[in-house]
């Protein structure tokens, strides 16, 4: 199996095919990162020493052509996995392929970064893991129902490691938050009337009375005032989420953080 990347695709196809025969009788040799024609000649020489089939996923046309010609000249069966697929997709899209080896692996790396970020956001949601504040790309703070969790998960899907902390007057702030650079903290605030409407709906959805302390106007005013005090103390930027979609708030958070030079 010959590849200009790591050769995982070629190995998957080869093993799936070998399973239709006596798979244990095959020796599968993976030769990754083939980027020079000279290596192909060495591979052909090696393949000639035993009964072989060459399976290759080479992106660059020159390398594919050399492999095809040399294998044919020496009577070695060779299977080009990428070439026909590239040609077929180019025909129906009329778009030239990028011809960049290793793109699938890079996409896989992006996927795993996203998964890691989502797991981090869940672990550090609602102040559950204060130590995670020091590992986060962004720390979001705000009173209950200011969209901290939805914004955190939206950002996580864009590979940002986000922790969020609820601001409650009676609950002491975690010590770790004072060690987080101010450029990584963003506060979320909201109009008192709008927050009360959201909390009333939340209580109704939970089957609780709408006049509970959670949705009391005085209580909400106290929480908002406390949050403003925390924002001033930490010196962090603040985003008003009143009537804002989660995506809009998240994009604003990204703008604020990247402005200070933080990227993922």
Short description:
The protein has 264 residues and is α/β, with parallel strands linked by helices. It is built from nine helices and seven strands; from the N terminus they run E-H-H-E-H-E-H-H-E-H-E-E-H-H-E-H.
Question: How is this structure best described in words?
Answer:
With 264 residues, the chain is an alpha/beta fold. The chain has two domains: 2-101; 107-258, Rossmann fold (3-Layer(aba) Sandwich), CATH 3.40.50. The chain contains nine helices and seven strands; from the N terminus they run βααβαβααβαββααβα. The strands form two sheets. The protein has a four-stranded parallel β-sheet, with helices on both faces. The protein has a three-stranded parallel β-sheet with strand order 1-2-3, with helices on both faces. α5 runs antiparallel to α6, α6 crosses α9 (246-258) and α7 (192-205) crosses α8. The protein starts with a strand and ends in a 6-residue tail after the last helix.
The sequence of SSEs as H and E is: EHHEHEHHEHEEHHEH
**Biggest beta-sheet profile:** 4 strands, parallel
Number of helices: 9
Number of strands: 7
Instruction: Report the uncertain regions.
Output: none
Q: Choose one word for the global shape.
A: elongated
CATH fold descriptor of the largest domain? Rossmann fold
* Mean pLDDT figure: 92
Query: Which percent range describes the beta-strand content?
Result: 5-15%
* Fraction of residues in helix: 40-55%
Cα-atom radius of gyration: 28 Å
Distance between the termini: 34 Å
């Amino acid at each position: 199996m010959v590849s200009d990347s790591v050769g995982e695709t070629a190995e998957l196809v080869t093993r799936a095919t070998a399973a239709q025969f006596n798979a244990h009788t095959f020796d599968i040799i993976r030769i990754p990162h083939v980027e020079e024609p000279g290596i192909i000649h060495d591979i052909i020489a090696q393949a000639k020493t035993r009964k072989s089939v060459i399976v290759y996923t080479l992106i660059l046309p020159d390398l594919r052509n050399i492999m095809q010609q040399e294998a044919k000249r020496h009577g070695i069966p060779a299977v080009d996995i990428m070439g026909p697929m590239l040609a077929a997709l180019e025909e129906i899209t009329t778009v030239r392929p990028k011809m960049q080896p290793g793109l699938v692996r890079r996409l896989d790396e992006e996927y795993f970064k996203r998964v890691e970020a989502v797991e981090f956001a869940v672990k550090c949601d609602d102040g559950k893991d204060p130590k995670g504040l020091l590992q986060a790309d962004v720390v979001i703070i705000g009173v209950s129902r200011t969209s901290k969790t939805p914004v955190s998960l939206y950002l996580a899907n864009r590979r940002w490691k986000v922790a969020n902390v609820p601001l409650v007057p009676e609950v002491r702030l975690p010590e770790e938050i004072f060690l987080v650079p101010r450029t990584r903290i963003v506060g979320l605030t909201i109009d008192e009337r709008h927050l009360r409407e959201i909390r009333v709906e939340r209580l109704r959805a939970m089957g609780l009375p709408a006049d509970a302390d959670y949705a009391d106007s005085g209580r909400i005013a106290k929480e908002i005032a406390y949050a403003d005090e925390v924002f001033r103390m930490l010196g962090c930027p603040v985003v008003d989420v009143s009537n804002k979609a989660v995506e809009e708030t998240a994009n604003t958070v990204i703008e604020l953080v990247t402005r200070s030079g933080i990227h993922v």
